[in-house]
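> run fold ABC transporter ATP-binding protein
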Amino acid sequence: MSNIVEIRDLQFGYGERSILSALDMDFPRGKVIAVMGGSGSGKTTILRLIGGQLSPQAGTVSVDGQVVHKLDTAALYALRRKMGMLFQGGALFTDLTAFENVAFPLREHTDLPPELIHNLVLLKLNAVGLRNAAQLKPSEISGGMARRVALARAVALDPSLIMYDEPFAGLDPISMGVTANLIRQLNDALGSTSILVSHDIHESFAIADYVYFLSQGQIVAQGTPAEMLESTHPYVKQFVHAESDGPVPFHYPGKSLAADLGLEVSR
Ligand SMILES: Nc1ncnc2c1ncn2[C@@H]1O[C@H](COP(=O)(O)OP(=O)(O)OP(=O)(O)O)[C@@H](O)[C@H]1O
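> ok
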């Protein structure tokens, strides 16, 4: 099957509040796919549905040909083993060294002998340029380096699907570029598929093969980064060119300013 993840006619809400509706998305194998949209548009919720932390009210999410919400606990656990996840903020265990952080999933999910774990961890740290920082703790490295350790940890088990939730948040421009390039390199070196949830147009467009734009729980535009840069869709234009007003209004809806200032002429 050419798509590692397929979302079909998906409906999801928290309680009564609908978050995603009639959602269809494809994530082809080997690609880096960006899911973009404003705060609260439902991006993280999509990752949680793919990871099976949430179940849809209707429709399906399939990963590797299996409908996620129909799996029993053992099958879901086995599927999750194929997924790597970089959570928002990419929090590391603060009292463990970079080495121990990356070793953690290997010790948790495999019975590999210690020498092999040792070598695998050094290879992962080497891939993110931090082999020589193996014995440092998060408080002893920069935020950008910590994010790279978190990347190494996310790919420790050679996942076939890697999900990144806002991997560029809080990084300086140089670290952002380094992180973006690493996401692409790790994807291609491992032959995996990456889903990148981000607000950051510049970094995401630089490495993504395909982009989905999500607004109010629906896909409003999709295509290659080049196609999205040329798009005349009002939401995409507002997002890509960082315009303050457009389909996403600058003003929180409500009374007009004139009404609030008592200047509205009554007819
Ligand atoms: N556990 C929850 N219970 C109720 N509502 C929630 C819960 N988690 C998220 N929401 C709401 O669902 C909506 C979508 O949230 P989600 O985190 O998927 O958005 P997002 O696009 O990832 O936003 P951001 O970029 O700000 O992280 C938001 O309005 C949020 O307030």
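Residues 1-30+37-82+200-267 form a domain with the Rossmann fold fold (CATH 3.40.50.300).
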